[in-house]
């Protein structure tokens, strides 16, 4: 049908099916800022428009209802390529990060301020109650509105957006806004879906209804015969290549335990067949025509079930080792079932698949038994974390096409170079035949560190020659996307009456699900990122990771650290309670300080011996002290309402900055022919501001305006290799590579200037806003002039700086998180009244973005602690695969008093003293809130999520 | 793609095979329990969204949205409170009171408070006749809701427990001096605690739901 509408003030006609959702039609008509995050759930708000003067979800408006409607989309906010003041304030406040629904948020706030110019915090909260912000949290949205109000009132911002650091620098440590902020907030076509050209084919996946079964046969003949079907890919015709979807350094510390499609399905939602077809309808029909005969098997879903004697084996195939194979391997493989395929370890991970063990590790320092003997009290408790989903607003998506005989992959990924390598393995083609273009990423949080869709879509394009667009549904995100490994963390801790901790033992049992993505590295972090924060002489850990038949797990912001901290800090709290001392005093008595030799690292090397290094820059004690002061620690708060009890808790935390000795980053900086700069960074900016960091590094070194620098990143053709954006490596590794490239360029510019000016290099220096100046003669040479001469007929050629960064040195961020909660003694409901996150990020290069990443990470962790949980039925099917039932936290769940504080510490190894910021911020909420709940009502809840029902049980009310 | 059925009168809707479409937030949303392949019958053009005050009585057209009820100066506080359980303005701007009642969800935002207040529905029944029925009879009799009549001076206390602001409620309960009503997730709508049933599901165990329902009754002063 055709209807008349007025969109953004312009009358036009639109065509569509009457019951097609309006969003789809708007997007196809070019209003691409109206995006979809929830498949018509009415939750995430990426599809928000103004419809006849009201905010509405366009996904829930049937097309026919738009007849005669007046519609405004976020595109209306941009006039003559200029964003409006709300969008500007959003960038300035640091909330435009992954930004998939930033345009929608801008529309909502613009609408609010039109209706209520003096909108209060409460008004903002109400206005944003229908939009899901996963990356930056909500706190700086309030700030953005305040900034707009101030500027409209007085012509300038009056509120300080973020603190500044390093007065000697122009851009680093200053809240300048992201260099890609305008493109993101205005809704430019920067995401994968925006790159798809007409005439594409679709890829759809037939998924397993069984948690564990052999595929006996697949009859796809009817599907293949269907008009419009180009290919049906199954385990019987896919390449016999074993690989791993985890995007990690090669060789990976994860076993190669899967093919594109396997003879055995290992979780509900596992791939059974893939169809390439002309459109969704044909693909759906084709899927329905595929006949599959399964042989169902017994399944295991928990660590306890997986470790039981005689448990069904998730992998029982041939085991191979690329290196370090044990002597008895032939004997070990005698009981293998070929239908299970293979498990190929790149090096020994201490796995034993005949007992469902994917990986294992152990290690420690001192004499653990002696430590417990010296203790006046011991606690020995087990803490369970749940399976939680990354829930990026942009689901996993990719667009693949052929160009000049090469495979081009437009990807939403954290690891473009790992995508290239793994797709090359699957397609069995050399890497130079593949071009991965990392588009803007609408949320990753670890899940886009894994190559979950590019492998299949890339292969499908390679064999069919068709351009293919693939996008997970939201439900598929829950069924077949990577999630946090559920973990059972037993902590035994002993201490003396004076608060000295004498021994810590951690027994970590992790659930890796059907495949071994990150099966060593994520669980290792439960110990490797927690034990080193303690200056305790006797510490030991055991780790075993089990295969099960739950939906897949993988990387998730924080890796295993949030789970480890939930256990170890809760245990410390319980020990302090048992000893009758203040847990904060106990913490301060046992934390590390700068210079403390971290002997424990020797046993925490993730498959290799770790290097013992001293603690470097460390703002931990200051974070604890300032947090305690802000929280009025030690003073018991009383509620005015007798039904509510108030409690306080805290956690001290650390993380890492990339993986020294493993990670590797490269960058180039080109002096462009007009004297401006182009940074080519291998790093993958996933919305966190990494490109801005690269630009700032260049501007600082080359003494030029920031607007004279552009950045291209994550493009495998244009840029040099980088291991990718994970393990908090972006700032430290990719940032340092850009810094080194800029320094190399500076050196080359000075050399060329010396030749052109005929002066000694040591007499020359760079000066703002972009020139070489002689200290001796006072002569000047602009970059524009310099490069013009260099590129002339008699010139010496292009000037390009190249930088690489590898290091054995650690730049460890530290912090302390404090929570104050109110618990309803009758209903068990928990309100997080206050949350103060204090972190030492070294020099925060983008301080406003750093603060927002802290807010976002904490908000996410509050969700994991109190609400979020993937629930499986008895057959292993996730029954709450949508935002609402899953329990994603919205603005209403954010603490009313929420503060992020950057502790000023200058690191010796990070670029301009910077360390990582975001992952560590996921570590504190669970233990701090658990401690606060115990303080309020005397109940230690030792499993996620800490629901009202569990609290009531703890209080013996039910 | 499902079909849209257009009608010339509400009565005609009864002769068509399909699901009635009002605001659309229930019918069109992901995971709607209503059959996805059934045609949709657009009844919205025939429904009133007027909110009219007549003494202490309030007549609310079934097409009145949650947002319009919330902003109406005549709406009693107990109804505004229940309407605001719907967690976002985008939804409240679209969802209608008639649609919410007709969907008869076990986590209903409005049925408990409307029932406790003694609300009466003005309904077009299958025979094409208009009749007034207490809300508690609607699930048996059905029909197209034309308007909802409530008393503005009724004292109603509402209770609701959901994990998050956007979660489906585990238990919603409302109480007045004359009656009580419970929406129990997984079980349904009940008009007394004694009749209420509780089951264990992903929203909570039966004893938890039962505890909350009993607690609410106690807190309401009806125990």
Fold and architecture overview:
The complex is a heterodimer of chains A (about 950) and B (about 220). Chain A has five domains: about 1-75, Ubiquitin-like (UB roll); about 85-190, [2Fe-2S]-binding domain (DNA polymerase, domain 1); about 195-295 and about 395-470, Aldehyde oxidase/xanthine dehydrogenase, a/b hammerhead (Aldehyde Oxidoreductase, domain 3), CATH 3.90.1170; about 485-655 and about 810-955, Aldehyde Oxidoreductase, domain 4; about 665-805, Aldehyde Oxidoreductase, domain 4. In chain A, about 25% of the residues lie in helices and about 20% in strands. The termini of chain A are far apart. Chain B has a domain at about 155-220. Chain B contains eight helices and twelve strands. In chain B, the strands form three sheets. A five-stranded antiparallel β-sheet of chain B has the order 4-5-8-6-7, covered by helices on one side. Chain B has a four-stranded antiparallel β-sheet with strand order 9-10-11-12, with helices on both faces. A three-stranded parallel β-sheet of chain B has the order 1-3-2, with no helix packed on it. Chains A and B meet through β4, α23 and α25 of A and α4 and α8 of B.
Strand content of chain B: 15-25%
Main sheet properties of chain A: 7 strands, mixed
Rg estimate of chain A, integer Å:
28 Å
Unreliable parts of chain B = none
The geometry of chain A reads as globular
Could you give the distance between the termini of chain A?
57 Å
Main structural class of chain A: alpha+beta
